[in-house]
Structure prediction request, 298 residues.
Amino acid sequence: MLRTILVPLDGSPLGEYALPTATDLAHRSRAQLLLVRAARHDTDEAAAYLDQLPAEAFGLPTDPMAEDLPASSRLPPCLRLVIPGDPAEAILAAARDNAADLIVMTTHGRGGLRHLLLGSVAEKVIAASPLPVWVVRASHPSLPSVVDIPVEILVPLDGSPFAEAALPVARQLASVLHAGILLVHAIEPTSLADDLLLTQPIIPPETALLDASEARTYLGDWVERLRLEGRPARLIVADGTARDVLLRESAAPGIRLVVIATHGRTGLRQTLFGSVAHDVLRHGTLPVVLVRPSPLHP
Prediction:
């Protein structure tokens, strides 16, 4: 269960796009919000900004303290922190020191080599965070900025323990959101199958590719485990590159969230999230939760 949800804020409306999602998750899981603002110089101004955030920024009615409002329309327990210094370091320190369970932050919605999808602060946070990071799209803040009764969470699996590290997070969020889980595996074209770094960078190079029969058996075993837990689950095995399959399936009706494992590395050949996760973020429309597996997973 989620207990503390951290939302990094920089004083801009863009950063505040993450607040309605975080607020909705906090209500559903009875968690507290941890609002963090890094300040290199003026800490008083940063503190005033956090204290004066209006109810509308959280996706709440304008008078969240009114006596007749339901609990879901009130501001959840909220801790506000101003931390001097580097923004990424401040976010990570706040997450560690306050035992946060999830970070919810906004994308810039920009692409290119100079400006990756999330901007430099988010890149550093995801690269180093041991916590899952829920990425809210600035370009699609209403799809859904507040979580609108999700039906299914999509989780791509490739047969590796690395990719499976996304499953505990997906299970937890499925419980919070009362959602099912859709497991997806892409059968790469033969001409591309040898270039794992290009086509499936979320898996270690030594992982063997599964054929269609092996993939159905593998995903079927996971579906059975999830159903035994009382969780709705199904699988899709489809031909195509991982990028194309995930973008197509994530656009299907009823899919509300993608949870995907990522290396958190930087560089031109293997970008911050690996090219598959990066493409899902850049070209998809759903929010994405990025999970960085522990060092035990290569």
